[in-house]
Structures are given as C-alpha cells and as structure tokens.
Automatic annotation (TrEMBL):
Its cofactor is heme b. This is Dyp-type peroxidase family. One of its GO terms (molecular function) is peroxidase activity. Keywords: Iron, Metal-binding, Oxidoreductase, Peroxidase. It comes from Bradyrhizobium ottawaense.
C-alpha cells in the first residue's frame, strides 16, 4: 500500500527536464548522436556531463544554456553496458517504439515506415535536448555541445531539430499550451489550484515509492536506475491549414468556428477551460494560473460543457471516472512540449508546405501503463467513454473517416469526415539517468556485473 510519508527527492541528482518545465521564452535544439565506438562514447559523456542541468538549480545563469540527455536501448548497448544489465530494462524500452506501432496505433501516415531518419532505426543512440533563453545563448550552448565530440570521429550527429516558443505561448493550432502537469509529491515545484492531489514520485522517478507503494527494482544495477526515468519521445507534424479548413466547413460563423475548436480541445484558445467557461472564451481566466486548472468533470457527466471526447478530457479524465474501476493516477505522465517551425499566418486556409508541429517528451517510470495506456485506450479507443470507434479529435488518426460528438440538448451534434490533423514523424523510448548514473556510465570499462 502507498505510504503517507513524503520522500525527500534528490533533486541535485535528477535531471532538470524531469521535474522542471521548460522556461519561457525559450529557444533550443534536439540533437541525436550515434556511437560507433564505446570508449569514445564514454569520453563524450564525460565531457558533456558538466552541462547537464540538475533539477535543484534549473535556469540559474551560470551557463548560457542547459542540457538534458537520454539514451535508447541501442545507445546503452553502444556505450558498452553489459547484456546482464540490458536485459533488466522493461520490454517496451528494449523493443523500441517503432516495434510497438500496432499497440500505439501508429498506422497510415503515422506508421514507422513514414518516420524521419533515424527514428525507428538502430542508429538513434543518444538524444540531447538543449535549452537557452535566446538565440545568442543557444549558439554558445551548441558550441559547448559540439566540443564534447569534435575530435571523436566515431561519434556522429544523425539528427538536429531547432525549436522555439511561438507567440503568446501557443501551439501551432493557436491554443495556449503546457497548462497542466501532474503534481509530483516532494518535487518542490510551485503548485497551483487544480493540480490535483500529489502523485507519488515513484510514478515518475525511480528510487521512490509509486502509487501502489512499490519502488522500482529494475533496471540493474541500482546505481544506474536511481533517480532515473523513461521518456517517450514523440515528434508530430501538425496540419494547421487542414484544421482551419475543417472548422470553416463545419461552422456557420467565425464564432461557431471558435466554439467547435474549443469543443475539440476542451479549452478555448486562451487556455480557459470549457468546464469553467462553457459559452464563450474568457482570456483572463485562461491567463490565471490559479484558476485555469481548478476544475473537474464530475459535475458535467453529460458532457454539455466539455464533450467526453474532447482532447483534454480524454488524456486526463480527472474526476469523471471516479466511479469506474480506473485508478487515473496510475496513468499520468509528465509532459514537456516544444514547438518547431513558423506559425501559419492568421486566416490562411491553404497549406504553405512548411514543416511545423510539436515535440513531446512524455516522462514516466511505467511507460506501458502511462503513455502506452493513454495512447492506446484513451486517445484512440472510444470505449471507455462509450463512444465506440470515436478517437481523440486532435491526436486521432482516422484519416478522414473520423467523427466527433458534441453533446447538446435537445439533439447532440456529430461532426463527420474528421481528417487526421496530427501525424507522427518520429518516436522512441529513451532512458534518462540521474547525474550519478551518468558518471557511472561514463566510467564503464569492461563493464560491472549487474546486481
């Protein structure tokens, strides 16, 4: 059973990306490396560790920028981690995200065959996220990152992606983003009303009790897993013009367009939740961190305010499932999102060919019951809300065959022919170690024996 004792988290050993949201404003770059020589890989790691940000002093101006680092299964293999240790990692991590496409319903345009290189291949080894406050600081931080492998010929960059904050902190669809994350017990983060009851730290970081009172016993050895976690990396292309065009086709007026969009998402573009502003947008509410998450769905069991199938209600049902045999706290994960590409100019309904979208780091110790469960059950299966084949209107991939139900009295409204607004362009499961574990990995020689 869970313990009521709040553990003291070793925040100086936990990577900042796990517990601290990305700053605002921000500019950054994702970099993926391939390791073709284990000794050079460990040397690269030794050089880059001083720039990996711990959670206790996130965003202090001691460096021009900050880094987070994670490894795929093949990356740990390339570093020389012994097979005795590798086999203790969870199945989904060892198999890789591409091999689990049928579970995640990554089909059609989102199928791994359509992903960008190196996603879904054995060449993706090390994923580095670099954050800075402005372009000048980013360039200085990137120079530090390059120095870590500039004279190591068997370390190669196989992928780069620049990202930055869009105007007003919105995503490419124009909605205020990054408004809700679970309240991690003992994290020291500022807690705003509506964050929900604290979730046990062991759901997100190894070495602490989880919601069932258990503490992770793998991967082995203990020095490797302590203060580490797993990250589901997902890159999405967002079809903004298609979204706007569909709204225009379905709506009777510009106000109706805004309402339909809000019904699909569960919030207005300002961030104001339908649960608190069902009829019209309330930008003041959307901007108020003490109010914009202070809501539930328990008083809206007919979905008249926020539809059952709305994006935010599907990925986080809050109190709507309180009478069901579903422990919602077992299916939460931390979400760190960034945007790439230029915003589509206001009013444009035709695709301009630019690449734009979002990259999401979905963080949790139990990826199978966290990210995989939410993706396969709540996002792409409507049965848990008695909606059959109805998928998430934003993240679903019905490819033009989708539909979305808006409860309404006396007669519900149902939208048909829902296009696929988001396509997966790449994904992978990564292991994000604690700082001490990084140093241990960097010091591997022949490799220790797993516990």
């Amino acid at each position: 059973m869970p313990t009521d004792k709040i553990p003291v988290l070793e925040v100086s050993d936990i990577q900042a990306t796990v517990l601290r949201p990305r700053p605002s404003p921000y500019r950054g770059q994702y970099v993926v490396l391939r390791i073709d020589d284990a000794a050079q890989g460990r040397e690269m790691l030794r050089r880059i560790i001083p720039y990996v940000a711990p959670a206790d002093d996130w965003w202090l101006p001691t460096l021009p920028g900050w880094m987070g680092i994670a490894f795929t299964y093949h990356g740990l293999e390339a570093l020389g981690l012994p097979a005795t240790s590798l086999k203790t990692f969870p199945q989904e991590f060892r198999e890789g995200m591409a091999s689990r496409a049928s579970i995640l319903r990554d089909v059609g345009d989102s199928a791994p065959a359509n992903w960008e290189y190196p996603f879904g291949t054995r060449d993706m080894h090390v994923a580095i996220a670099i954050y800075s406050k402005d372009e000048e600081s980013l360039e200085a931080t990137l120079a530090l990152a390059r120095q870590s492998h500039h004279d190591l010929p068997n370390i190669s960059v196989v992928y780069r992606l620049r990202f930055s904050e869009l105007p007003n902190g919105c995503n490419p669809f124009g909605f205020k983003d990054g408004l809700h994350n679970p309240n991690v017990e003992g994290s020291g983060a500022v807690v705003h009303p509506g964050s929900g009851r604290p979730v046990k730290a062991g759901e997100f970081i190894m070495g602490y009790p989880d919601e069932l009172g258990a503490t992770a016993i793998s991967p082995e050895p203990e020095v490797l897993r302590r203060n580490g976690t797993f990250v589901a990396f997902r890159k999405f292309h967002m079809r903004v013009a298609a979204f706007r065009h569909y709204l225009r086709e379905q709506a009777a007026s510009p106000e109706d367009e805004d309402l339909i969009a809000a019904k699909m998402v569960g919030r207005w573009r300002s961030g104001a939740p339908l649960a608190l502003a069902a009829e019209q947008d309330d930008p003041e509410l959307g901007a108020d961190q003490d109010r914009n998450n202070a809501f539930g769905f328990g008083d809206d069991m007919h979905g008249l305010k926020c539809p059952f199938g709305a994006h935010i209600r599907r990925v986080n049902p809050r109190d709507a499932l309180k009478n069901e045999l579903v422990a919602t706290n077992l299916h939460q994960f931390l979400r760190r999102g960034t945007n790439y590409g230029p915003p589509l100019p206001e009013g444009v309904l035709e695709d301009d060919g630019a690449q734009r979208g979002g990259v999401f780091l979905l963080i949790g110790v139990h990826q199978r019951q966290q990210f995989e469960f939410v993706q396969s059950q709540w996002i792409t299966d409507g049965n848990f809300i008695s909606h059959g084949r109805e998928e998430d209107p934003i993240l679903g991939n019905s490819g033009g065959e989708g539909f979305f139900t808006i409860p309404k009295r006396p007669v519900r409204r149902r939208l048909h022919g829902l296009p696929q607004f988001v396509a997966v362009q790449g994904g992978e499961y990564c292991f994000m170690p604690g700082l001490r574990a990084l140093k241990w990995l960097a010091g591997l020689e022949a490799g220790p024996t797993a516990e």
